[in-house]
Amino acid sequence: MKVVALVSGGKDSCYNMCLCVKDGHEIVALVNLYPSKESESGDELDSFMYQTVGHQALSYYSEAIGIPLFRREITGKPVDQSYDYKEDKHDKDEVEDLYRILKQLKDDNIEFDAISVGAIHSNYQRIRAQNVCDRLGIKMLAYLWGRDQKELLSEMIDNDIDAILIKVAAMGLNAEKHLGKSIKEMYPTLLQLNEKYGINVCGEGGEYETLTLNCPLFKKKLVIDESETIVHSDDAFAAVAYLKPLKISVIDKISKNVV
Asked: Residues 102, 169: one domain?
């Protein structure tokens, strides 16, 4: 099938896109939703649907992957927070931003049969993405859904998903110590924190968010040359902070076969 990949920059959306290709599908476009410049909360929206931290990097994804990228500002809010989503009652819900950009692609004669979604455990996201798919007559490909998180994160690392922690918001995670570290570097720590505090190893409870700098589908890789740490809460036990990329480069990848 021809697939439009929903990408936030996080490890989950990028790995699910890799699995789509592995399963024989073709990624024809990337779609990203990002916060409006007029947003009161700036880079990080109070969204139940979208990761917006690190959105500055997404404009470089098309160059890195070699696939067209389509973006839309998030104008809606999480209006309908009920288990079942009813689009006819909530025209201003943030879910409608996703519907509108995909509908626009259809109207512009971009052919696709499915979307790639990196949902693992959130029924809130899965149900709403499925609602959009049903209305457009397309399928949802969510290869990560329901997977064991310890096994899944290990699999991502083994399959060369190079993603760094771009936000921390959990007991045991420290902005100064952990922001910017790769998931490979953080894996032992995340397992320990899972045992000690019960955090979700893949960050499904909002414990952390990631930014993918390189993966097997990337023809080039991203480098964060300059960034700023934004601290929301400097709590000694559970700081809330994120990295804001200020300068990003897209560079050639070095072949592993080079001696």
From this structure: no
**How far is the C-alpha of 120 from the C-alpha of 79, rounded, in Å?**
22
Domain housing 241 = 149-252
How far does CA 67 lie from the centroid of its chain? 17
**Dist CA 169 CA 209 (whole Å):** 9
Q: Are the C-beta atoms of 186 and 174 separated by less than 8 Å?
A: no
For residue 39, the model assigns a pLDDT of 58
Q: What is the CATH number of the domain that holds 67?
A: 3.40.50.620
CB within 8 A of 198, min separation 6: which ones? none
56 within domain boundaries: yes
> Is the per-residue pLDDT at 259 higher than 70?
no
* Phi, psi dihedrals of residue 177, rounded to the nearest 5°: -90, -35
Amino acid identity of residue 65, one-letter, is I
Angle at CA of residue 212, ends 95 and 127, nearest 5°: 25
The two three-digit tokens of residue 159, written as one number: 């399959």
pLDDT of res. 233? 77
Is 54 in a helix, a strand, or coil?
coil
Number of domains within the chain: 2
CATH code, domain carrying 246: 3.90.1490.10
Evaluate if pTM is beyond 0.70: yes
Residues 88 and 137 occupy one common structural domain: yes
As a whole number of angstroms, the distance between CA 120 and CA 164 comes to 18
251 vs 221: CA distance, rounded Å: 6
> 129 with 13: CB under 8 angstroms?
no
Quick count: other Cβ atoms within 10 Å of Cβ 235?
A: 12
Looking at the structure, tell me whether residues 211 and 239 fall in a common domain: yes
In degrees, to the nearest 5, what angle opens at C-alpha 46 toward C-alphas 41 and 52?
80
Q: What is the mean pLDDT of residues 79-99?
A: 87
